[in-house]
Amino acid sequence: MKKIGLLTLVLLTSAVFGVFAGGQKEAPAAAEEGKPYAGQKVTVLYFSATYADAAKEYASEFKDKTGIELEVVDFPYITLYEKMGLALSTGDSTYDVVTPACQWDGEFEPYMVDLKPYIERDNWDSGDILPGLWEQSGKWAGKIMGIPFSNTPQTLAYRTDLIDTFPQTWDEFFAICDSLHDPVNKFYAVAIPGVKEQLSGLWMMVQWSLGGRWADENWNLTIDSPETREALTIVKKWFDYADPAAPSWGLPESDAAFLQGNAAIAFSWPTLTIAPNGDDPEKSKVVGKWAIAPIPFAKNGVTVLSSWDMGIPKAAKNKDAAWEWIKFYTSKEKQLQNFVDYSILPSRISVWNKPEVKNSKLYPHKEASERGAIIWWRIPAGTMAEAVIRDSVANFVTGQWNMDKAVSFMADGLGKILSDYPPPQGVKNTGR
After folding, report:
1. Does residue 20 carry a pLDDT above 70?
2. 73-102 burial string, b = 16+ CB within 10 Å, else e?
3. What is the pLDDT of residue 199?
4. Strands across the sheet with 188-191, in order?
5. Could you give the CA distance from residue 370 to residue 385 in angstroms, rounded to a whole number?
6. Are residues 113 and 222 in the same domain?
7. C-alpha distances in angstroms, 197 versus 150, 208, 239, 320, 394?
């Protein structure tokens, strides 16, 4: 994964990019009346999750409407980063639409078409996209490289039959853990995805909610701080209340423990598994006994954002047909269907105001978003920076490193990254 990040970073400064030719329709292979792109094919690249599942379901409807055949290719998260990075950096024309995670935007933006001419040409309703979200997912250095289609702040799930009101402070949180933890009977206060790729994001939300940062807005490091140390202490303490196997768990194992009734609280992305299955008697033993809450507020309640945006590579063969898919998938109608059928949280203001959303168990995500949901550094070296945090947190919570070594590893690693790969001139650190 690091090798791909380094490869794309080198190519950022040396590749010669094609010129955007938006506004000109490609000649259709077999145009039908009212379907100028009939006979064309669009290949789209997604994360292997509900986003791809929804796209596959809509393929037939999209073809009926536009005449465009849709092929959906999807990969798991880590593989997706490598596949997408390699395709973009080498000018591979396989994909007409790609869907970067928002933290990859700074790295991949040079390979992406600016969508502004398409938006203006079609008078597309861009004013309905949450502006704060769009600034973090799909916009980079003054360019619209993608349209965000998901908006998921990190939250947690809890048992409503065991916890009346979810705690607002970490002291209250651990008091509840003390009262519920029953390892003798294999019931645990918390379920945690302990693998470092997931755990690092959980640590970030704690550090940020305590008021911590990795660097100030001018990229001066602030990672060596009391907030960093307190966050490490809190996250390590979680494992005192978790299944002993939790350090090796990913999201599927953590979510399964909660759904099977073996944990009172699940640190997770509830939209992925818990929400779609929590009230299905065939898949859940906690039907009607769960809810979602923001993390304990700490100082400011800031949490981690997960958002994906979709854009068109400069090497894409069918750019105009690709834009038709982006408009279709991010439309009000499809965002509402994505929410109802797949628990995908909308990026549109109007969809958040729909009764189906406001009256759902997922609506607490809006409170978490309003408190502040951000992503880590979106600069080209952001993935390498996240890897430094990931290794440090994992080694600390498993007892391999002490506090001083963990924090110095963060400071030294982030400092070297900023020195070797300085942020683009004029780009401020708007995250933490």
Report:
1. no
2. bbbeeeebbebbbebbbeeeeebbbbbbbb
3. 94
4. 188-191, 263-268, 155-159, 290-293
5. 26
6. no
7. 20, 18, 16, 36, 9
Looking at the structure, do residues 267 and 166 belong to the same domain, yes or no? yes
Name residue 324's amino acid: E
Cα–Cα distance, 173 to 387 (Å, whole number)? 28
CB neighbours of residue 273 within 10 Å: 24
Residue with tokens 């944990």: 263
Helix (H) or strand (E) holding 374: strand 373-374
Q: Which residue reads 């499809």 in tokens?
A: 334
Segment 86-90 mean pLDDT: 96
Please give the biggest Cα pair distance in the chain: 69
CA distance 390 to 53: 29
Residue 81 contacts residue 108 (beta carbons within 8 Å): no
**323-361: per-residue pLDDT in tens?**
999 999 999 999 999 999 999 999 999 999 999 999 999
Token couple for 42? 């669009």
Whole-angstrom CA distances from 313 to 54, 104, 145, 325, 374 are: 22, 14, 9, 14, 25
Domain shared by 225 and 327, yes or no: no
**Residue-range definition of the domain harbouring residue 183:** 153-304+377-420
Output the six-digit token pair for 163.
Answer: 């916890």
Domain boundary among 327, 346, 365: 346
